[in-house]
Every structure is written in structure tokens, then in C-alpha cells.
């Protein structure tokens, strides 16, 4: 699925944040980072995942790890998602076409109820301070995922 592997340099990116700013790969440099891709704001699995990462944000901070959640939802939708669920993780909006998720291969054809469509495959990347990929979780199952990522980040 992913076109990148452990040991590769994470691709450069620039994405809009809910407050109208931007976040880039350079913003994540110097410390470990977790970039998690999720399909859609305010859906059950995505809400649980964002809330789980938010609940552990203090622990990620203590471990020196930055968190960034990414979907193709608009900055306004992200803003509402954050407010509705009191999220503390940073979110960013990937480009509709040709964005980071496309480059990584996590925006791809999916099937549900016999229909084929393009969608985000829930995936997480753990990055070293120099932007090298330390670990990839493809096709994430939400339950226990944030805790597993935290343990891996602490040990990396």
C-alpha cells in the first residue's frame, strides 16, 4: 500500500491548519513526530482515534513527540471537529489531489458495499527528528492504536 518504507525520508509537505496557518515537514523536524492519516472528521472510528491521541497528548509531549492528524477534510471542518470533541492534537488538511496522502499511497481505491471509491486508508507514521520513517502502521485498527504508537515512540 505505502509507497514509502521504514528508513526512507518522509516526503516534504505543506498543509493548511484549522487556524488558517500551515504546517510543513520542517515544522516537525528536530524531534520525533507521529503523523496519522484518518478518513473523515466526526465519524465514529476517526473520532475515537483523535480522542485517543488527544488523551495521550501529554504523554507524547513528555516523550518529545509531536502529533499531527491528517485528512482531506477542510480546515473549517477540522476546526468544528476539534471544538466538538475538545481535541488537543494538531490537525491538517491534505490537498484534494496530489497531496501527501496521495504520495504516500494511503489515498487509494477502497470498496464498500460493492462500490469502489477513493478514500483514506487509516495509517500512521512514526518519524525520527531528521524526518526518516522509523515505523509504519498500515490499515490501522483504532482500539489500542494510540497506546501502541506511544510505546513505540518511547522506544525509538
Automatic annotation (TrEMBL):
GO BP, sorted A to Z: cell redox homeostasis; cellular response to oxidative stress
Record-listed E.C. numbers: 1.11.1.24
Catalytic activity: a hydroperoxide + [thioredoxin]-dithiol = an alcohol + [thioredoxin]-disulfide + H2O
Active site per the UniProt annotation: 46
Keyword Plastid attributed: no
Keywords for this protein: Antioxidant, Disulfide bond, Oxidoreductase, Peroxidase, Redox-active center
CDD domains the record matches: PRX_BCP
GO molecular function, one term: thioredoxin peroxidase activity
Gene3D superfamilies, sorted: Glutaredoxin
Domain Thioredoxin: 4-156
One of the Pfam families matching this protein, by short name: AhpC-TSA
GO CC terms of this entry: cytoplasm
Top EC class for this record: oxidoreductase
Record function comment: Thiol-specific peroxidase that catalyzes the reduction of hydrogen peroxide and organic hydroperoxides to water and alcohols, respectively. Plays a role in cell protection against oxidative stress by detoxifying peroxides and as sensor of hydrogen peroxide-mediated signaling events.
Family: Belongs to the peroxiredoxin family. BCP/PrxQ subfamily.
Subunit description: Monomer.
Protein name as catalogued: thioredoxin-dependent peroxiredoxin
Species per Swiss-Prot/TrEMBL record: Qipengyuania gaetbuli
Amino acid at each position: 500500500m505505502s509507497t514509502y518504507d521504514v528508513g526512507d525520508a518522509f516526503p516534504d509537505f505543506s498543509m493548511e491548519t484549522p487556524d488558517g496557518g500551515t504546517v510543513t515537514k520542517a515544522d516537525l523536524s528536530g524531534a520525533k513526530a507521529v503523523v496519522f492519516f484518518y478518513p473523515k472528521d466526526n465519524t465514529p472510528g476517526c473520532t475515537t482515534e483523535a480522542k485517543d491521541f488527544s488523551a495521550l497528548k501529554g504523554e507524547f509531549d513528555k516523550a518529545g513527540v509531536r502529533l499531527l492528524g491528517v485528512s482531506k477534510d477542510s480546515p473549517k471542518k477540522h476546526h468544528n471537529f476539534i471544538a466538538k470533541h475538545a481535541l488537543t492534537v494538531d490537525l491538517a488538511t491534505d490537498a484534494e489531489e496530489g497531496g501527501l496522502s496521495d504520495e504516500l499511497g494511503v489515498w487509494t481505491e477502497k470498496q464498500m458495499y460493492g462500490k469502489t471509491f477513493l478514500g483514506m486508508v487509516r495509517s500512521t507514521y512514526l518519524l525520527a527528528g531528521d524526518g526518516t520513517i522509523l515505523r509504519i502502521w498500515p490499515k490501522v485498527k483504532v482500539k489500542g492504536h494510540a497506546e501502541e504508537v506511544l510505546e513505540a515512540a518511547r522506544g525509538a
